[in-house]
């Protein structure tokens, strides 16, 4: 595990300074309320354009890109779910209490795909289907 400085010892040691996941949400207001208000991702920027165009940029903390080969994805699916399958792109969000956050997200309209469970890599993971069709892994590091 590294701090904000990253493995190289300098913040953003590579050429990429930010990872931004861009999601089209048919029900923009519902998705915004879910991620900003329920999940607690503060709004950093907002822009409006012609013909009702809207975008909100929400702070998701530190971002990483996790690349997994198909065998690893199958392994993760066996560990994290009861037979569920990962979408090709799945968003994983680290929280302090997986069970509590998952319950809150389901109460706010997310669909539970897999309840919280401890993994071999010492985290507690759950999966939900959030607004805008995003598959989320909610995880809590135990170490």
TrEMBL record:
<dbReference type="InterPro" id="IPR037523">
    <property type="entry name" value="VOC_core"/>
</dbReference>
<dbReference type="InterPro" id="IPR029068">
    <property type="entry name" value="Glyas_Bleomycin-R_OHBP_Dase"/>
</dbReference>
<dbReference type="Pfam" id="PF18029">
    <property type="entry name" value="Glyoxalase_6"/>
</dbReference>
<dbReference type="InterPro" id="IPR041581">
    <property type="entry name" value="Glyoxalase_6"/>
</dbReference>
<feature type="domain" description="VOC">
    <location>
        <begin position="17"/>
        <end position="141"/>
    </location>
</feature>
<protein>
    <submittedName>
        <fullName>VOC family protein</fullName>
    </submittedName>
</protein>
